[in-house]
Specification:
By secondary structure, this protein is of the alpha/beta class. It has four domains: 97 residues, no CATH class; 39 residues, no CATH class; 116 residues, 2-Layer Sandwich (Nucleotidyltransferase, domain 5), CATH 3.30.420; 126 residues. 48% of the residues lie in helices and 21% in strands. Strands 1, 2, 5, 6 and 7 form a five-stranded mixed β-sheet that branches. A five-stranded mixed β-sheet has the order 10-9-8-11-12, sandwiched between helices. α1 packs across α3, α6 runs antiparallel to α7 and α10 packs antiparallel against α11.
């Protein structure tokens, strides 16, 4: 038992009247100072009369490696405006069972460590740590200025296994994540445009996305003045899946009786899909040998490079010449899957042409998606999706 505790003046408005300290824990009793004015915990107005005294056990930051518990005597004041309310304590929130300093420290640790580790560090239940972090994140997001986006980037990322996705919308100018929703349907992103309002939707000039029909239709409905810009990466990836891979499989099947040649074609899968600049010298030699030995593969590979050139056109006329030339080559190739892909791509030509005027892409979101994977992997997944989305928004608050 320690009576001389006057030096523990760490909680304004209170003084330590008793303490007990062991090898792994500490306990302090705090009582209010009677000479200080009292304020109502709801309206913060000055009060004079005290209705009753109550006691609350509160967790505080560890003291010299010991778990610290405060037994705080609080006054229930008689406020003429609010009735019977607990007094205002600036270092303790209403109804809280831990001090503000400890709650803020726990939330800060959650920025770098998984919840499970933070809970073990402070001897708290993981749900308590989650609620503290969630409340802190919500407070940070409420302090951000109201967004005024003019250019948007839309994409999706894997939420769970089993082809379950979430949609994410980014301000292309400030790199701030504006909205996240489960699923990748029109209904999932509709609340975002509803929150923008009519004036906000008119302000949107361009939206970069992949060839997601749901995103396309919803943007056209709410922002008829905005231009849709289709991303090069997604178009080329779709070309690789539907054209190059199909031709490679057909070529390998045709070489069924020539096993060495068939093996070479089957092993050239990633060589055909990767950028030529990213290949090693030995890989480029192998790729060249495969292309020279297979005319169909050579055709679709060369036309892939021609398709990429549409995103580097300097003006609409140059783009028009390249587009017509590419379509003509596809028609003359005699490759059915290539012709089918070209016919499907025809209706998307305005979004590809828009790249000349609006040099936007979803590459910004691809980098953010990698960070999202890290956030998800740190916690081994999230049970609370709303909390997960708050973590993402807080990680990308924008740079303006």
């Amino acid at each position: 038992m320690h009576k001389n505790t006057g030096w523990l003046d760490l909680w304004p408005g209170f003084h330590v009247t008793d303490s007990r300290i062991t090898h792994d824990s500490a306990w302090l009793r705090l009582e209010p100072l009677t000479k200080l004015p009292l304020r109502c915990g709801q309206c913060l107005g000055l009060v004079e009369s005290v209705h009753e005294r109550v006691t609350r056990n509160v967790r505080e930051l560890s003291l010299a490696g010991r778990t610290l518990t405060l037994q705080v005597q609080l006054l229930r004041v008689d406020c003429p405006r609010c009735g019977h309310c607990l007094q205002h304590v600036r270092w303790l929130d209403r109804f809280a069972r831990m001090t503000r300093a400890m709650a803020q420290t726990v939330a800060q640790c959650c920025k770098r460590l998984p919840i499970k580790h933070v809970a073990q560090m402070f001897c708290l239940h993981w749900s308590t740590v989650q609620q503290l972090d969630k409340r802190s994140l919500a407070g940070l997001m409420s302090q951000l200025p109201q967004p005024q986006p003019t250019h948007l980037v839309m994409d999706e990322f894997a939420l769970h296994k089993g082809h379950r996705y979430a949609s994410v919308i980014l301000d292309a100018d400030t790199r701030r994540v504006l909205y996240i929703a489960k699923d990748r349907s029109r209904e999932a992103i509709r609340p975002f445009f509803e929150s923008l309002g009519e004036a906000g939707c008119r302000r949107i000039q361009a939206v970069a996305m992949d060839m997601n029909t749901a995103f396309d239709l919803e943007v056209r409905h709410w922002c008829p003045r905005a231009r849709i810009v289709y991303d090069l990466f997604h178009v080329i990836a779709k070309y690789g899946r539907e054209v190059i891979s199909r031709v490679r499989v057909d070529t390998a099947n045709a070489l069924r009786n020539d096993k060495p040649a068939r093996r070479v074609v089957k092993q050239a899968h990633w060589l055909l899909l990767r950028n030529a600049d990213n290949l090693k010298d030995s890989e480029q030699v192998t790729l060249q040998e495969v292309l020279e030995a297979n005319e169909a593969l050579m055709t679709v590979y060369v036309l892939k490079q021609s398709l990429k050139s549409l995103w580097t056109a300097h003006d609409p006329w140059q783009w028009r010449r390249r587009w017509k030339q590419w379509l003509a080559h596809c028609a003359q190739s005699g490759i059915e899957c290539l012709q089918l892909f070209a016919n499907r791509l025809r209706k998307y030509w305005p979004g590809i042409l828009a790249r000349v005027r609006w040099p936007m892409h979803t590459g910004q979101l691809e980098g953010i998606n990698n960070r999202i994977k890290v956030i998800k992997r740190m916690a081994y997944g999230y049970r609370d999706v709303e909390y997960f989305f708050l973590k993402i928004k807080a990680a990308f608050p924008g740079n303006a």
